[in-house]
């Protein structure tokens, strides 16, 4: 499949009519070439990939979006579908190809492609198939965009972020995963819904694995700047730990519920990843719980394990990891989560 781009020519043989259609102002200087073009590449145009691309487009985060997928017909169809909405959207150039050359010069490469689990297939076998897929994806991305940031969305995101880091050869700050950014949003929503406040006024993090061993940091939750658990204790308002655990388990099961109801998740992860893209590309220095190299933080030792921690993000990727107060119990759960991920990583032979 040949690379396809937004066309700007009409007439026989693709004649460029721009010069005939538009006349320059008398005695004006020619246009100055600009290198200030923000380019984002999205690998994988399934439900998740296209939700991310669509959200990035509507939020005007890129001057150019490149789409890559192994299915040429679906790829071209998705690109055309977005191009046809050009009159209602910010001006953005689209390219699409099965060839990774289309991603050259990207500022941010978002990877959503991944193998689906077959009936009866073990998690390890699925992971190994995804590693084989990443061997085809990550090296060309790194070669064609050596100064880019890699943002991994494919699951299991923690282990595959580690794989992307190893295969890319990039500095560790320029490889991160979407991690528990969405889990934390679900967490904030549930707390906000319970208290009848705006979720943006709730500060709350889920850390660790993006999965069953994730850890809810109840000790650091605040609403409108008020530490929730400290407030309850000072007001002598009783609460049960099981109630807190039930809320966490609702977060863990949220994706499964959506998949059961509609067959897949898309919109929430689209907004989550676009939110990360905005913070990175516009150097907003915001704190997000994302998958990073966790060695040396919160008692996580013994290997290059990747999991979600609250991290300060900017134009160069991960700026630093935030020092969030954790109870001993929370830190112990995080270390246990790290061990779970480390055991998976150790079976890959990278």
TrEMBL record:
Domain Lactate/malate dehydrogenase N-terminal: from-to ranges: 38-177
Domain Lactate/malate dehydrogenase C-terminal: 180-342
One Pfam family from the record: Ldh_1_C
Keyword NAD found: yes
Active site: residue positions: 210
Keyword Oxidoreductase: yes
Cross-referenced SUPFAM superfamilies: LDH C-terminal domain-like (SSF56327), NAD(P)-binding Rossmann-fold domains (SSF51735)
Any one GO molecular function term: L-lactate dehydrogenase (NAD+) activity
Gene Ontology terms describing biological process: lactate metabolic process
CDD domains named among the record's database cross-references: LDH_1
GO cellular component: cytoplasm
This enzyme's EC code(s): 1.1.1.27
UniProt entry keywords in alphabetical sequence: NAD, Oxidoreductase
Top-level class of the enzyme under EC nomenclature: oxidoreductase
Pathway(s) per entry: Fermentation; pyruvate fermentation to lactate; (S)-lactate from pyruvate: step 1/1
Catalysis performed (reactions): (S)-lactate + NAD(+) = pyruvate + NADH + H(+)
Positions contributing to NAD(+) binding: 44-49, 69, 130, 153-155
Family: Belongs to the LDH/MDH superfamily. LDH family.
NCBIfam families, per database record: L-LDH-NAD
Name of the featured protein: L-lactate dehydrogenase
Organism: Brassica carinata
């Amino acid at each position: 499949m040949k690379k396809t781009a937004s066309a700007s020519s009409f007439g026989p043989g693709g004649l460029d009519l721009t010069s005939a259609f538009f006349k320059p102002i008398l005695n004006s200087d020619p246009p100055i070439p600009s290198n200030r073009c923000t380019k984002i590449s999205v690998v994988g145009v399934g439900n998740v990939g296209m939700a991310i691309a669509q959200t990035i487009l509507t939020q005007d985060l890129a001057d150019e979006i490149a789409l890559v997928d192994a299915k040429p017909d679906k790829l071209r169809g998705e690109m055309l579908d977005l191009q046809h909405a050009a009159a209602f959207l910010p001006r953005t150039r689209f390219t699409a190809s099965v060839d990774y050359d289309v991603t050259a010069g990207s500022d941010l490469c978002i990877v959503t492609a991944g193998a689906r689990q077959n009936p009866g297939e073990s998690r390890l076998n699925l992971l190994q198939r995804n590693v084989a897929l990443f061997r085809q994806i990550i090296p060309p991305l790194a070669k064609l965009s050596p100064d880019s940031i890699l943002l991994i969305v494919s699951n299991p995101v923690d282990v595959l972020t580690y794989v992307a880091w190893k295969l890319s050869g990039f500095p560790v700050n320029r490889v991160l995963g979407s991690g528990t950014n969405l889990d934390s949003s679900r967490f904030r929503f549930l707390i906000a819904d319970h208290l009848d406040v705006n979720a943006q006024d709730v500060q709350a993090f889920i850390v660790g694995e993006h999965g069953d061993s994730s850890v809810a940091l109840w000790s650091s939750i605040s609403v409108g700047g008020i530490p929730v658990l400290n407030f309850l204790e000072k007001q002598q308002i009783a609460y049960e730990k099981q109630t807190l655990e039930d809320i966490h388990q609702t977060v863990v099961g949220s994706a499964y519920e959506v998949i059961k109801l509609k067959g897949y998740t898309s919109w929430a992860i689209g907004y989550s990843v676009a939110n990360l893209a905005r913070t990175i590309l516009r150097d907003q220095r915001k704190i997000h719980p994302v998958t990073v190299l966790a060695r040396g933080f919160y008692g996580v030792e013994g290997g290059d394990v990747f999991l979600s921690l609250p991290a300060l993000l900017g134009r160069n990727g991960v700026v630093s990891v935030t020092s969030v107060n954790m109870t001993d119990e929370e830190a112990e759960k995080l270390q246990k989560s790290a061990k779970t991920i480390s055991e998976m990583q150790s079976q890959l032979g990278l």
